[in-house]
Specification:
Length: 138
């Protein structure tokens, strides 16, 4: 089964939106293979967002993602990498289509609620950053 990495960013838990996001994932029929509430470390963030460190928004992104716990998930399903990107919507919630997580539930380019891997390769890399193989259901 194809797997992807999904993260509910810190405002998701703060705003009580975990259930809403999980409901969309379950309704689509995807499998929840791991679910973990965690505080993110700066080291994890720098590895995860490798290539973004020099961007002007990076300090805000770090402040946001360390402002409270996030939820790390491994989600499985057919073409789930592309499917979860579609479900998340465009990076800028103001441009994201209605019906997507960002389009329905977010407003701010930094606080855009959800991360989903953009390729199979990045999915494997990101899963390994946050979860051990024992924590993932096969
Ligand atoms: P994603 O794959 O849709 O999450 O977008 P990117 O990989 O391009 O960027 C990673 C994250 O950095 C985004 O989800 C945003 O939280 C943040 N980000 C990216 N570009 C911008 C920007 O131009 N302004 C701000 N404020 N945040 C940004
Ligand atoms: Mg990205």
């Amino acid at each position: 089964m194809e797997k992807t990495f999904v993260m509910l960013k810190s405002d998701g838990l703060q705003r009580g939106l975990l259930g809403n996001v999980l409901s969309r994932i379950e309704s689509k029929g995807y499998s929840i293979l791991a679910l973990k509430v965690q505080n993110m470390t700066l080291e994890q963030l720098e590895k995860h967002y490798d290539g973004h460190q020099d961007k002007p928004y990076f300090p805000n992104l770090v402040e946001y993602l360390t402002s409270g716990p996030v939820v790390h998930m491994v989600i499985g399903g057919e073409n789930v990498v592309a499917g979860m990107r579609k479900m998340s919507g465009a990076t800028d919630p103001a441009k994201a289509d209605l019906g997507t997580v960002r389009g329905d539930l977010a407003q701010d380019m930094t606080k855009n609620l959800i991360h989903t891997s953009d390729s199979l390769e990045n999915a494997a890399r990101e899963i390994a950053l946050y979860l051990t193989p024992e924590e993932i259901i096969e």
